[in-house]
Amino acid sequence: MSCGEPHETDCSEVLDHLYEFLDSEMPEGDRDKIKVHFDECSPCLEKYGLEQAVKKLVKRCCGHDDVPTDLRAKVLGRLDLIRSGQAVPEHDVTASPAAPASSTPTPQES
Predict the structure, then answer these.
(1) Tell me: the pLDDT tens digits for 52-109?
(2) d(CA 40, CA 5)
């Protein structure tokens, strides 16, 4: 997306980093550049407002669910592996082992 106007920071760059901006997960200097861009570019400001509203709605509607302790531990363990630079298995390490496949069809498969 581009509004067609020249900006110091291109619209596509701003929108590529919109969630980092929304979540305050970027350096302050980069945040300042995006704020300046929003002052100059109403289409990007509108997109920001829309994404901010969606984020608030999701938090309000879905932010009260408790995460199961075992799932939280597995996810945090996987994040630790990634951060430490260790090889992370390609398969889903959070999934329970699958039951052996049966050659007998279930009543629903017949």
Answers:
(1) 999 999 888 886 778 889 998 998 988 888 888 877 777 665 555 444 444 444 455 4
(2) 9
First to last CA, the chain: 51
**Interior/surface letters 45-56, b for 16+ CB within 10 angstroms, e for the rest:** eebbeeeeeeee
Question: Are 51 and 18 contacting, i.e. CB atoms less than 8 angstroms apart?
Answer: yes
pTM: 0.55
Specify the DSSP element, H or E, that contains 53.
Answer: helix 42-62
Q: Which residues contact 21 (CB under 8 A, 6 or more apart)?
A: 14, 31, 34, 48
Judge whether 71 and 54 are in contact, CB under 8 Å.
no
